[in-house]
Amino acid sequence: MATPSRNKLFFGSFIHSKTLAELEYLHGTAVAVDSAGKIVAVAPGHADPAAAAAALFPTLGWAPADVDIVQAKSESHFFFPGFIDTHLHASQYPNVGIFGNSTLLDWLNTYTFPLEASLADPAKARKVYTRVIRKTLAHGTTCAAYYATVDVASTNLLADLCLAAGQRALVGRVCMDQLSPAYYRDESPAAALAATRASIAHIEAIDPTLSLVRPVLTPRFAPSCSAPLLKGLGALAAERPDLPIQTHISENKNEIALVKELFPPSATGAPDDSYSSVYDAFGLLTDRTILAHGVHLSEFEAELIAKRGAKVSHCPCSNSAITSGAARVRWLLEKGVTCGLGTDMSGGYSPSVLEAARLAALVSRHVAMGGDDKAKLTVEEVLYLATRGGAEVVGLQEWVGRFEVGMDWDAQLVGLGTVDAEGGVEGVEEGEEEDGNVDVFGWESWAERVAKWVYNGDDRNTRKVWVKGRLVHERK
Fold first, then answer.
1. Positive or negative torsion for Cα 276, 145, 348, 355
2. What pLDDT does residue 300 have?
3. Class of 83-393 per CATH?
4. Can you tell me the distance from the alpha carbon of 206 to that of 221, in angstroms, rounded to the nearest whole number?
5. How many CB atoms lie within 10 A of CB 55?
6. What are the C-alpha distances in Å from 32 to residues 88, 397, 470?
7. What is the DSSP letter of 342?
């Protein structure tokens, strides 16, 4: 359960993305966060928390007794914005790492649909959802765009649990009325829309301001939705322009061929049979749309997505694990398409957005080895995708993703291990567990320390996590 919030003063080193290509390093800095979780001051150039407090508290009207001071106690500790996971299936978490030799369509029928359907059992759903929320928070994920299941009660439970845990979330009831097992699909387009409205109403009731948990319209992907269902969801999206939309696109070549077969232009009124045009024809390609994968998009599709302002969630782990392909992220960015990162569990095997960032860097190198050297993504760029890019993908760029006055304090305290003269880690006694897999020797630049974290870090380095100023995870 998230702890109640008070005014807080955070002190130490702060690192965040200034631009796609540049990280900003703020050392000896104090960040003041009020009891509502808003950053009200960012003040660099202080020797210690006491000096920062003496300078800031009078201007903020804060009494020292009413402020909690949180200091990064080691030179190898730093504050970083919370990660934003722009695409994951909470209902599939028990299957992480289980995908055999399947590709997408076989994997859905063999592994995915049976598990998702079983979460109609409230006890099982509570067990799975509680664990995935705890696990993602432990990896520094302060915001997650979740797919639940077709079951309204199960979807509502996920929203309830996110709110109770203090995790910022988009929660979507999955819509699907065809090409899925009879035991796991919507009975009709009308039933799917009614169930979607019921879930939206529940989320709006538990979080009326939608400041923490928001509903998201969720057609699973075009092949599992009939044309009437897609049309109905497009109409609902037009009726509710405040709600985001999430779905999949161009993940797998067989999937793309299936879309062309199911939705010819004669059936949709689209100018062509591309995957993107199908969504566009039904009013589902908007500036609120999150498109997962986008591995095999054409030039025309990338330009259409950019024109509509839709966003892409890059999922390098699952794209590799189930052999979907290597998305061309640099190409998408150059086309003007905003991108973020998704773990896409359980096609992806890890709940860590940091893992997604390192895999995004590696997958970009495989694209480069195919002949496009400029495709390579830097450490700075993948961290941008994990934070500011992700914030824009989920429509929260005005609230999270960077350390600036007026932003919400969604952040993590990252601790890296400093190697001592004996080859151990400072502050860790013999036999005790070390804090992660990152070794800092003391001579590295800050850019080098961050690179080590990206390529070697894990949840052991995530010491504390806050959402809207509330402590939601702490590694003891």
1. positive
2. 97
3. alpha beta
4. 28
5. 14
6. 32, 20, 13
7. -
Give the pLDDT confidence score for residue 4 in this predicted structure.
56
**Which helix (H) or strand (E) element contains residue 24?**
strand 22-33
CATH 3.20.20.140 domain extents, the chain: 83-393
Structure tokens belonging to residue 71: 């200091």
Cα–Cα distance, 6 to 130 (Å, whole number): 26
Task: Give the pLDDT confidence score for residue 219 in this predicted structure.
Answer: 98
Contacts of residue 196, defined as CB under 8 A and 6 or more positions apart, other chains included, come to: 173, 175, 217, 218, 233, 236
Tell me which residue has tokens 């928001």: 214
Domain with CATH 2.30.40.10 in the chain: 7-80+408-474
The DSSP string of 105-126 is HHHIIIIIHHHHHHTTSHHHHH
List, in order, residues 6 or more apart from 268 with CB less than 8 Å away. Answer: 227, 277, 278, 281, 282
Cα 256 versus chain centre, distance: 25
Q: Which residues of the chain have pLDDT under 70?
A: 1-4, 431
Using alpha carbons, list the distances in angstroms from residue 72 to 57, 80, 127, 463.
20, 11, 34, 10
Alpha-carbon distance 433 to 357, whole Å? 25
C-beta separation of 164 from 131 below 8 A: no
Token pair 């999922």: residue? 315
pLDDT at position 35: 97
Element holding 153 (H helix, E strand)? helix 152-165
Q: Are 401 and 391 in contact (CB under 8 A)?
A: yes
Q: Are 357 and 382 within 8 A, CB to CB?
A: yes
CATH for the 7-80+408-474 domain, from 1.20.1250.20, 1.10.8.50, 2.30.40.10, 3.30.499.10:
2.30.40.10
